[in-house]
Amino acid sequence: METKENEIILPDDPRAATYHTDIKGWISYNCHFFGNDERMARYDGSTHRICEGCGAVVGKINYCRACYDKKEFDDYLAMPEMEWNEEGRLYSQANDEYYDGWDYALDACEDAGTLKDMRLIIAEPVYVKEIDPSEYYLDGIPDGYELPDDIREAFDELNEIIRNSKTILCYRPGKFRVMLP
């Protein structure tokens, strides 16, 4: 069933989902069956939602752009501040970019305004993780079987190299905003 262009169906709209007694379950406006999960049927059958910040009608997202930006900024301000030791990287929440040092962040300031406007966060490194061979081959080994000894030994050697190398794969935004100089 196609919705008319620009038609708004909110989750609490009776058209979003209906309960059927012949099959005992909820069917969304899109004709998908959800059993007893009324909430998911209503979500699937709706075209819009109510913004959790201001109450405006928005697409199938939780916040309108203005409320999302405000929430993101408030979350940033709620982070504890920490002085950056100039190791690793900085992340700009405003630009969604990583910087290798103050010089790179300052270069980016020319476009973004000031360092304060960039909402800088100390990035955390993401390290290479050890491989658990039983999980890695979980789907390929029948129940009750083990990996051959030479393969398990190779995994043990690889995991020893990973443990000793502390190789950084990438960075992710951390838990501390940068105390600006």
What does this structure look like?
The protein has 181 residues and is α+β, with helices and mostly antiparallel strands. The chain has a domain at 80-181. 32% of the residues lie in helices and 22% in strands. It is built from six helices and nine strands. The strands form three sheets. Strands 5-9-8-6-7 form a five-stranded mixed beta sheet. Strands 1-2 form a two-stranded antiparallel ribbon. A two-stranded antiparallel ribbon has the order 3-4. The protein is flat. The relative contact order is 0.12. The model has no long low-confidence stretch (mean pLDDT 88).
Compile the SSE list and pairings.
Layout: E1 17-20, E2 25-28, H1 38-45, E3 49-50, E4 57-58, H2 65-78, E5 81-82, E6 90-92, E7 97-99, H3 102-112, H4 115-118, E8 120-127, H5 133-136, H6 149-165, E9 168-178
Parallel strand pairs: 5-9
Antiparallel strand pairs: 1-2, 3-4, 6-7, 6-8, 8-9
